[in-house]
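Supplementary Note 3. Input sequence used for the single-chain structure prediction.
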Amino acid sequence: MRYGRTASWFVLASLFPLAAMAGSIDSPGTLPSAGSGMYTLQGLYEYLLSGTEASISVTFQEPVAGPGDTGKTLKEIYDEIKAEFNACDVTADKVLDSVTFFSTDPANWGPRVGTLAAQTPVNTTVSQSAGYYNTFDLSAVDADLTSANIKGTSTIFGVPGKNEVVDTAEATNPAGAGDVLSGKVAYVNGVQVTGTMPTQTLSDASKTVAAGYYGATTLDAVDADLTSANIRSDVEVFGVTGSYNGVECSGTLSALGRWCDNGNGTVTDMNSGLVWLQNAGCIGLKKWIDTATWDDANTAATVLYDGSTAFGAGDCNLSDGSAAGEWRLPTKSELVELTTGTEYVRGSSPYEFSNVQ
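The predicted structure, written as discrete structure tokens, is reproduced below.
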């Protein structure tokens, strides 16, 4: 029997060499000692297997004080594992489907498969459900997420807008078809508008230009009289500088343009530039020269001026600002010119003159 016990001890020592070397072989102390209980390996196994909490046996107590530690006690191991497991709160609905995880929920202890399905984004609303999404391209979800549909000054999810895309909203003064040139297309308040505004043609018949759209043109092509020769010297009209130094009419022209009623008692011959007294009979019938009485036409002309009182009609209705000595009788050739040519003067056709005899 003695030899048999020795053999048994030898077998145990051979099976657990590390345990024999790990601690002291001295007596652990008087039993029981309060607070020195340990979890069993079976308790740890059951906890890992099913989540069943382990308990410390009251039939065996380790001493309160003993040899120094050479490793963690079973209690420390259990407490650490339990604390770590208690910190785990993941459930199947929080783990992707087809993925295996270890559940520490006592009701669902052990390896479990997740049930969290991947979400599919939709293009019918801006609100997307919470959940897991696989990598995707927003423009693949909604094909309208393109530059052509985004205002030029905006960028949506990294897609820059197109400069041609603008806000066409106009509530106060929206354009209509008549406000857009014919053949042109515009967008007003999001609606396409085809213009009906015609192109106007400039006319030389009047200086009044009607409102409307006019194509590019040159004014001298519209009115051939817009030339330098027809514009007074040193005057510029629509970019054309005048060179004309002849007679100008600031009053009313006769039908064919030879005579200008200056509106001040005088008439200008536009052909010669001579200024005539409009009231041809104001001085009366007189000799050319009368050296006896000096009551002749030549003398009368020298006292004719604006404000004169030498004649029955006063100053012959002059208001031209003329002074004494500025009037004279015409020469023979000037008289001939007066009565010949276009719109020549006769008693029956006085034109701009009066009292022609």
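The CA atoms of residues 105 and 132 lie 23 Å apart. DSSP finds eight helices and 14 strands in the chain.
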